[in-house]
Design a protein that fits this description.
Distance between the termini: 34 Å
Largest sheet: 11 strands, mixed
Structural class: alpha+beta
CATH superfamily of the largest domain: Fumarylacetoacetase-like, C-terminal domain
CATH architecture of the largest domain: Alpha-Beta Complex
Radius of gyration: 18 Å
Number of domains: 2
CATH class of the largest domain: Alpha Beta
Number of helices: 7
Order of helices and strands: EEEHHEEHHEEEEEEHHEEEHEEE
Shape: globular
Length: 275
């Protein structure tokens, strides 16, 4: 397993606590365009020079689109049904949870993605906003899963709940996505017991926390990736968020200056303020 960090210089690779700087101009796009990203990362690590961890990181994204899957956890299904019940959405969210075809939607382009430490945004025309902590898959140009990062799928629940056709407005806007702190490149699947945890702090105090495990994810990574790549091409590869199993209570909404901390080992912790 190699963790790949991105800063203003380029890529920094870490393995078992050793950091190296690529000896050539390797980019995130090179990994996603490679037929074998794991071998490329291993070769780069072996030929690099010693380096230190940078203070400021960029999001581990180059030219990739970000896509997302919805209603993949029972908790998400229940929340979506509740928020859209007045719009008649209770039935179809239940149906998509049990359907063969998953819900997949476009989430963002690179310039809309917030880096670690950079502020994510809540929409000015929304009054009910939450983060959605999600394990995010790195898929190369062939649809091969080669790595993982942490994703924050910022969501305007009142807009989505008003009418499901408003989903793009509830999900896609400037800095409605955060990725990081790194990209884990590995051929080994994550354990089903992998824990996803979130903590939201306000004025130094925790106002919400929660956790789930991949055991609660209904659909397999291979299934989600296969549906995404059906009749769709990604020459630069893509990121795919896998849905959330943690939803704050309906009484909760984010405020400016909140701090969102999402932890998934062995990836690390993605920290973003709201602003």
């Amino acid at each position: 397993m190699i963790r790949v960090f991105t800063d203003s210089i380029g890529l920094l690779l870490e393995k078992e606590g050793v950091f190296i700087r690529s000896s050539h101009a390797l980019t995130i796009d090179d990994l996603f365009r490679s037929d074998d990203p794991c071998s490329l990362a291993q070769q780069t690590f072996a030929s690099g020079r010693a380096a230190t961890m940078p203070e400021t990181l960029r999001a581990p994204i180059g030219s990739q689109e970000v896509w997302a899957a919805g209603v993949t956890y029972l908790r998400s299904r229940t929340a979506r049904m509740e928020e859209s019940k007045d719009a008649g959405g209770g039935t179809f969210y239940d149906k998509v949870y049990h359907a063969e075809r998953p819900e997949l939607f476009f989430k963002g382009t690179p310039h809309r993605v917030a880096a670690p430490g950079q502020a994510v945004r809540i929409r000015a025309d929304s009054k009910w906003n939450v983060p959605e902590p999600e394990l995010t898959l790195a898929l190369n140009h062939q649809g091969k899963l080669f790595g993982y990062t942490i994703g924050n799928d910022m969501s305007s629940r009142d807009i989505e709940g008003e009418n499901p056709l408003y989903l793009p407005q509830a999900k896609v806007y400037d800095r409605s996505t955060a990725l990081g702190p790194c990209l884990v490149v590995t051929n080994s699947p994550l354990l089903r017991t992998t824990r996803i945890a979130i903590e939201i702090r306000r004025n130094g105090a925790t106002v919400f926390s929660g956790a789930t495990e991949l055991t609660q994810l209904k659909r397999s990574f291979a299934e989600l990736a296969e549906f995404l790549f059906r009749d769709n091409s990604f020459p630069n590869g893509t990121y795919l968020m896998t849905g959330t199993g943690i939803v704050p209570p309906d009484s909760f909404t984010l405020q400016n200056a909140d701090e969102i901390r999402i932890t998934i080992e062995p990836i690390g912790t993605l920290i973003n303020p709201v602003g």
